[in-house]
Amino acid sequence: MTLSSPRPLPAGAGYAADPAVRHAATSGGVGSTIIRYLLETGAAAAAVSFTFDPRTLRYRPCLVTSAADYVSVGSIYHEVDLLGFLRGQAAALPGPLVCTCLPCQTKAVRSLLSRHGVGCFLIELTCSSQQSFAATDYLLRRLHVAPRDVALIRYRGNGWPGGIQITLRDGRQKFVGNIGSLWTRIFHSRLFCMPRCFSCPPAFGGPADIVLAAPWRIDPPVPSEGRTLFAVRSPQGARLMEELCAKGLVRVDPVPDGSLAYSQEGTLRLKAAYARHRRSVRWLRRVCTHPAYRRAVTAWPLLFSFHVLWKRVFDKIVSR
Ligand SMILES: Cc1cc2nc3c(=O)[nH]c(=O)nc-3n(C[C@H](O)[C@H](O)[C@H](O)COP(=O)(O)OP(=O)(O)OC[C@H]3O[C@@H](n4cnc5c(N)ncnc54)[C@H](O)[C@@H]3O)c2cc1C
Ligand code: SF4
Q1: Does residue 188 fall inside a structural domain?
Q2: Ligand 1 geometric centre to CA of 125 (Å)
Q3: Is ligand 2 within 6 A of the CB of residue 199?
Q4: Cis bond leading into 161, ω under 30°?
Q5: Could you tell me if residue 95 is inside a domain?
Q6: Which of 47, 108, 109, 167 lies 20 to 30 Å from 82, alpha-carbon distance?
Q7: Tens-place pLDDT, residues 182-228
Q8: pTM check: above 0.90
Q9: Ligand closest to the CA atom of residue 212
């Protein structure tokens, strides 16, 4: 259940030395710094990046071939068909390619790229669950914001711990924090999460070069500049982190051994509990993902709160 030890490969809490990169990123900007550096030095021919489509309000993957074209968008909390995107152009993918992915995608991405002879540097983003776009849709509804009025949505970034920033077409901004907010209730309600997340194993597992996480439970959740917890998983990843530190692009604070797993303890415990209670969790999934149930509980805020409450009780019971 713990992260298999990367020793003697390094782990720590890092952040981008460039304050603008750090501020724009999800937590400390280590992910963005790696991508920019690999593109700038030519160590990667291309990177998977994301662009926001104001028509659909969704992010879609794209390939960038220079650091200047890479845009830091922070974590994207709606499902992105990363594998479909890579498969669609697998024969023509430039390499080496630097790609960020969720733990359930790392293995498939690596094997796809290797089948097509494309070298890669894989960055795995620690993950508690991913949402369908319906989660964002519901948030907009609760905020009384019409989708047609939205110009941009950013789920993370602009400082730690940040939150959802919605820019409206008339220039107004809406902000929903990441802690104890309507968004966190939506995120953890399981009403919108991808069905595969109900049976996600309680481990960081993919064959990535480096694993990144936010410093939950380690850094206080007060507005500040963030850090990224990282654990190197391959000699290639170790060389890169050493280079980034030696060149002063990433600064690293030492943290106690096991900090990355410690920061995710609640998520790991819940995933382990779900793995132990497969039948009950199958029932939970059937209820939460049933369109009629979801329609009903999202019709009135009170019913949604009731759903959140019983789901919390469910989690408590299975985690005992
Ligand atoms: C769905 C999801 C769930 C998460 N759950 C957790 C969690 O439970 N615990 C935790 O500690 N952290 C979680 N994270 C945050 C993640 O671990 C952070 O990306 C990490 O803190 C790195 O921060 P950074 O500032 O170094 O990254 P950044 O510098 O912001 O770089 C992140 C990179 O990831 C890319 N990216 C963003 N979203 C996606 C996506 N959906 N698929 C592929 N690439 C993407 C961005 O384009 C960017 O290049 C989650 C992220 C996602 C997307
Ligand atoms: S919780 Fe697991 S299955 Fe769901 S998106 Fe994250 S890594 Fe994938």
Answers
A1: yes
A2: 5
A3: no
A4: yes
A5: yes
A6: 167
A7: 999 999 999 999 999 999 999 876 799 999 999 999 999 999 999 99
A8: yes
A9: 1
